[in-house]
Design brief:
23% of the residues lie in helices and 19% in strands. The protein has 124 residues and is an alpha+beta fold. The chain has a domain of 86 residues: Rossmann fold (3-Layer(aba) Sandwich). Strand 1 and strand 2 form a beta hairpin. The longest helix has 8 residues. It comes from Chelonoidis abingdonii. Belongs to the NDRG family. This is Protein NDRG2. InterPro entries: AB_hydrolase_fold, NDRG.
């Protein structure tokens, strides 16, 4: 029978950037047929290069979603340095967003998706 030996594992490099270091980005907002939408751009758009666009899940925003952890992952740094990353916040989900006025009709999922071309046009 084979004996088990305890192995000490040490990390040579951390998997994630420390949470105290904010991921730099420039905040923007653009008017769409369905209202104002906020988004944050990380990096510089490059000609003939696609962008990585994220859109968070219900009740979250770009900061409090899986994308923050994903883009802090060290192996992703090699990927994201070659692309511009655009994190879209659904209306009213961005940090510091005001409350919706009484009677506000929140956009449908199709309308939320229709906001994306407005962002892309804004970014050229």
């Amino acid at each position: 029978m084979t004996e088990l030996h305890e192995v000490q594992i040490t990390e040579e490099k951390p998997l994630l950037l420390p949470p105290s270091q904010p991921i730099p980005g420039k905040k923007h907002s653009v008017e769409t047929p369905y209202g104002l939408v906020a988004f944050t751009v990380h990096g510089t758009p490059k000609p003939k290069r696609p962008a990585i666009l994220t859109y968070h899940d219900v009740g979250l925003n770009r900061k409090w979603s899986c994308f923050e952890t994903l883009f802090r992952f060290e192996d992703m740094q090699e990927i994201v340095k070659n692309f511009v990353v655009v994190h879209v916040d659904a209306p009213g989900m961005e940090e510091g967003a005001p409350l919706f006025p009484l009677g506000y009709q929140y956009p449908s999922l199709d309308q939320l998706a229709d906001m994306i071309p407005c962002i892309l046009q804004y970014l050229k």
